Amino acid sequence: MNDPKVVSEMPLSLSELRQHIELIKKRDKEPNMRVVKTDEYLQTFAPLEPAKAAELKEKIRKLEIPRLKEEHMSKIIDILPKSVEELKAIVQGYIVTISKENMKKIVDAVQEYVPGKKKK
Q1: Can you tell me whether residue 3 is helix, strand or coil?
Q2: Which are the contacts of 119, defined by CB distance < 8 A and separation ≥ 6?
Q3: Would you place residue 118 in the very low, low, confident or very high pLDDT band (cuts 50, 70, 90)?
Q4: Model pLDDT for residues 53-100, shown as the tens digit of each residue
Q5: Were both Cys, which of 48, 60, 70, 77 would link to 52 (CB 3.0–4.6 Å)?
Q6: In angstroms, rounded to a whole number, what is the distance separating the alpha carbons of residues 97 and 62?
């Protein structure tokens, strides 16, 4: 049996994972059960299209929030918090402190990407 080795690790949002799954489906003639199940899950729960998710990630990155890492950004993109309280609940799971002003900036950046919400 193969002995797989981890070459690198990087956090992915659900939308980014959807892109990778599409590449696997194109590469493999018949994707395995895990790919199919993951794809079904992503079709249901990934809130943004990959292009929109990348755009939002870049927007959050440009805010230059201290101590905000890729994994935090990916989780924010997956959940799309609508308020500072929701964002606070997301970042509580990590050892990171973000000021209320910066949290407000993040929530404001996310608002235009929330599905079903009218753009200003």
Answers
A1: coil
A2: 112
A3: low
A4: 999 999 999 999 999 999 999 999 999 999 999 999 999 988 888 999
A5: 48
A6: 18
